[in-house]
Specification:
Layout: E1 2-8, E2 12-19, E3 22-29, H1 32-44, E4 52-57, H2 63-72, E5 76-80, H3 82-91, H4 99-113, H5 123-149, H6 154-184, H7 186-195, H8 203-212, H9 221-228, E6 232-234, E7 245-247, H10 253-258, H11 260-269, H12 271-282, H13 287-308, H14 314-319
Parallel strand pairs: 1-4, 4-5
Antiparallel strand pairs: 1-2, 2-3, 6-7
């Protein structure tokens, strides 16, 4: 099968097609129109669902519409952990860093490693993802208007007030739609109950976990941690680094961001998270390291309850700290 690598950005994506030792490249807009043009381009070049394998990185949320378009058209598409692509590039001693070069690297990774096919979420989960994305967009507009209010006067201030009021109503409406959507689907409601059995996990984190941390998506919890972007990244070269360890930050930035305050809550109200925090503090680790460790543990616990179908067991969690 021919290997095709796709490097995805917010507004466009680069494609690299390997066939018989030859390389062809193409750029498309990351829009519905661009996705349709991609499918037409594949058909034009006789690249069918039987003779090609497409791969892309699981970076941010921009890959999802492209992957869905390909999946719905019947193509074999793989969504690969960026750390795997990076390691593969280092093994080839690749130094070039452009969108086109990245697409070619992904294609070569696909050709050599033949990654597992990606399976799209069911329609009810897609709808939840769309609702969450829309809620985030409206919340972003609300923050912008709140910031503008500090400098506005007169009629401009009145206008901002009206817009803020409208946005707050829409935020409340979307939040209600998200909860109703979960409640209307028994399996989503069951997952929600399991997730909220974890002290520190509330309705917001639960809805994100249902949308993006589906149990069938990951073979083991390390893949889920990497997907969120909480895998440790070690820097041990150079005298100025001094062996510091940081998180990779590759992965689902939105999910990683909303875990921060729940982790803070878990450190107070979740006995297992508190024990982990105490152990790290006793070892001389600072508060930031402890928070990230608890965020990582929350991912472990969330994937665990979804996969097992059993509520959170604090005694079992404590035994593994």
């Amino acid at each position: 099968m021919d290997a095709i690598g796709i490097d995805i950005a917010k507004r466009k994506f680069d494609l690299a097609w390997l066939s018989g030792g030859k390389l062809k490249t193409k750029v498309f807009d990351n829009t519905d129109k661009g996705h349709a043009e991609l499918l037409a381009w594949l058909k034009k070049h006789n690249l069918t669902t039987e003779n090609c394998h497409l791969a892309m990185e699981a970076t941010s949320q921009y890959y999802e519409p492209v992957a869905l378009a390909l999946f719905d058209a019947g193509y074999m598409v793989s969504v690969v952990n960026p750390l795997q692509i990076k390691a593969f590039g280092e093994s080839l001693m690749r130094r070039q860093k452009t969108d086109r070069a990245d697409a070619e690297l992904i294609a070569r990774f696909c050709e050599v490693n033949k990654p597992e096919p990606w399976h799209a979420p069911p329609p009810k989960v897609r709808e939840l993802q769309r609702l969450l994305a829309r809620l985030e967009a409206v919340q972003g507009m609300h923050v912008q208007e709140q910031n503008r209010r500090h400098e506005a006067q007169g009629f401009a201030l009145e206008s901002i007030g009206r817009v803020i009021e409208t946005l707050e109503l829409e935020i409340a409406y979307l939040e209600g739609q998200i909860r109703d959507h979960i409640d209307r689907n028994p399996d989503l409601r069951e997952q929600d109950e399991l997730l909220q059995s974890i002290p520190g996990v509330g309705p917001v984190v639960s809805s994100y976990a249902i949308a993006w941390l589906r149990g069938e998506r990951f073979d083991d919890v390390r893949q889920a941690v990497a997907f969120v972007g909480l895998s440790p990244r070690h820097n041990q070269s150079g005298s100025s680094i001094q062996g510091k360890s940081r998180i990779s930050r590759l992965g689902h930035g939105r999910l990683r961001k909303i875990l921060y305050w729940p982790a803070m809550s878990a450190m107070r109200y979740n006995a297992a998270a508190a024990a982990l925090t105490q152990r790290l503090t006793a070892a001389g680790k600072n508060k930031k390291v402890a928070i990230i460790a608890v965020m990582r543990k929350l991912v472990h616990w969330m994937v665990g309850v979804i996969k097992s179908g059993k509520p959170f067991d604090v005694n079992l969690a404590l035994a593994r700290i």
